[in-house]
Design a protein that fits this description.
This protein is an alpha+beta fold. It contains seven helices and nine strands; from the N terminus they run αβαββαβαααβββββα. The chain folds into two domains: 132 residues, no CATH class; 118 residues, no CATH class.
């Protein structure tokens, strides 16, 4: 019996280390919960990653290989990623190690910015494109959307922040100064948004355009997006509108006689987390 081939084993170990993924974080990509910075709805977010918008959704695992290169691994085990995220949010450790059979794609780069890196390996950097015969068919490098200037991505991020910090934003609003009635609103941009929202009720939009999540009491928090606008609202309160055409502005919309019914109707067609 001969001993192991040391040179071969060393080369194999180096290759294994390079192929290993050091997980940094994970996010869900489902109709009810997706990084809205990637698009106004679930199909748009999937298209940004070159994925088909399957109804069950995906989990996105972001990490680095042994060389430090950024990779996004797409898996179809949504529950696994959901459990990992919930554990991390509670401050618990969770070893997210997807089964190879659940891997849908390995995409170079990250679609979202990360301020962390795996210890003990080179700093995060873009993977070197392959030189194989099928190199032309390799996925495009993922890069985070530009949010340095006001535009759709930053507008959606602003709406996300309002949804997360609703109480802080709400207490800044004097009800006497809000737009008292959406139907009679003098602001052309807000009036167009209200009309688009009514259109969603009449003809449901693509999945994820309107999302509903828990709020305090019996209320729901609504997030809706459309061409050039985003809305955050509570079904028992007012709404906030953000527009591409008005950089950095957050426009409050009072309830009036129309908004309560509109929000209730939107909540009925909204997708909700499982």
């Amino acid at each position: 019996m001969t001993g192991p081939d040391t040179d071969t084993d060393t080369a194999a170990s180096a290759e294994d280390a390079e192929d290993a993924l050091f997980v940094l974080t994970a996010v869900l990509l489902t109709p009810a919960q997706f990084p809205s910075v990637l698009g106004d709805d679930y199909p748009q977010a999937c298209a940004a990653l070159g994925l088909e918008p399957y109804a069950d959704g995906y989990g996105l695992v972001l990490g680095q290989d042994g060389t430090g290169a950024r990779w996004t691994v797409v898996i179809d085990d949504v529950s696994l990623v959901a459990v990992a995220i919930a554990s991390w949010d509670c401050g618990m450790e969770y070893d997210l190690s997807p089964d190879e059979r659940t891997v849908v794609a390995g995409l170079p780069g990250w679609p979202l910015p990360l301020a962390v890196a795996a210890p003990g390996i080179p700093d995060p950097h873009d993977p070197v494109p392959g030189n194989g015969a099928d190199g032309a068919n390799e996925p495009s490098l993922l890069t985070p959307p530009d949010t340095d200037t006001w535009g759709p991505a930053q507008r959606r991020l602003g709406a996300d922040e309002i949804a997360l910090q609703w109480a802080a934003w709400r207490e800044q609003i004097d009800d006497a100064e809000t737009f008292v009635a959406p139907g009679d609103n003098p602001h052309a941009g807000v009036r167009r948004v209200i009309e688009d929202l009514h259109g969603y009720v009449d003809a449901p939009p693509p999945p994820g355009r309107v999302r509903s999540t828990f709020a305090s009491g019996q209320a729901r928090t609504l997030r809706a997006d459309g061409p050039g606008w985003s809305v955050v609202a509570r079904t028992d309160d007012i709404a906030f509108v953000l527009l591409d055409d008005e950089p950095g502005e957050v426009l409050p919309v009072g309830r009036g006689p129309e908004l309560p019914g509109l929000l209730a109707a939107l909540d009925k067609i909204a997708v909700r987390p499982a």
